[in-house]
Amino acid sequence: MSSNKLDACLIIDIGKTNIKCVLLDELGQTLWSRSQPNISHTDKAYPYFDLDGIWQWLQSSLHFANTIALISAINISTHGACAVLIDEQGELVLPVLDYEHPIPEDISQQYDAIRPDFTQTLSPNLPLGLNLGRQLFWLQQQYPVEFARTHHVLMYPQYWVWRLTGQAVTEVTSLGCHTDLWLPAEQTYSSLLDELVLRSAMPPIKTGYEVVGGPTDEVCQSTGLSANCRIYSGVHDSNAGFARYLYSIPDRPVTLVSMGTWVICMTTEQRLKNLQECRDTLGNVSVAGNLLPCARFMGGREFEQICQLTNSDMTGDYQPDDIQQLIDDGVFALPPFSQSGGPFAGREGRIIGKPASGSALASLYLALMIDYQLDLLGVIGDVIFGSASRKNPLMCQLLAQLRPRQRILLSGDSAGTVVGAWCLTRWQQAPDPSLTQFDIAKATNINGLLIYRDRWRDLSEQIDRPVSLAG
What we know:
The chain is of the alpha+beta class.
């Protein structure tokens, strides 16, 4: 390998919608990136992720990236609600279930009888397979012979760490992500692992900023990676985005709105009495292992759905006048537009009126939902946005008008998850000053916005459907 190559870090980011490989330099600037859609396959008994196909793509991407720079470090972030079961020979026990697959009602009822209480796990009772424990219980009941072969349970980021290094580890951000498997306050496993007879299958726990090892000889041969490349323990994607701010501003409370397929509000403001299971507010775990109050809804998916329902281009530009028109005309988008969790799950979303701009309505909806979730968490300090401040700046400005007593800070990161995973590879180093600089969102001046917000909340609460997260 040429010695004059630029030293770089490669981040593998496996989101629910897209898979990315991003090469970053010493300042966290992108040198190269590649992505492809993350497709759930349906040619077997249940929808699953094609791990071998992803692995082939990752090896090809690593090989190409290695021609651009000397890859000295690799970290992996992935979506949550996912684990991989492998046997003693390192083979898949069962295909990896897509968490959006419905779990049969009779199985869910049996599972509800054994799952620990929300007061212990701070993990709400979620629909589909969003509770990882529910997935595991269903697989155990449906495929008992195969399930009994489980030697290791690998959380999804750590599965890819294992493919790269051959080392099996566990890391708490994925373990503490509404799995029912972890007790955040006690920082230990829940009783559910004993119910599933999986406690002995959990590998040693590593923190998100620890090195697991170097690539295996086989990986070095297939990718050209140096055996000296440091491979870190991996992280849940939303927690990676949050780690970027824990790293850069460790001296004050942090509240982040992480936006993607899911919109997740995460805060170090510890108001645990505000957490409500029925509202899909929960306790996640930070990379340091600390309890992290969160509220979430499937905002990216809902934005897309609202645009589809209004025959609107998702990338369409909109202006403050378009928002004003929606308010003047009394047009409302009432939650939810996805049945995957969120504070209004179990109800059916609807649009009142005919919007002139569907993208404006979808953006206003996101601002109102985020404002609602920040109130659920009791957040009173600064609120930070990363890539959303570039992709949808007017939405951030709407939130600034909705919350005039708080600062809405804009970091402008184009890929907060990727930057956060990169920060974990340099946790003991002082942050670059660029990571500590923020713009402040200028509030919009929309007439009647606060009155409209109150009406939207009243209508959202009055939808005549039961609130149930249990499917």
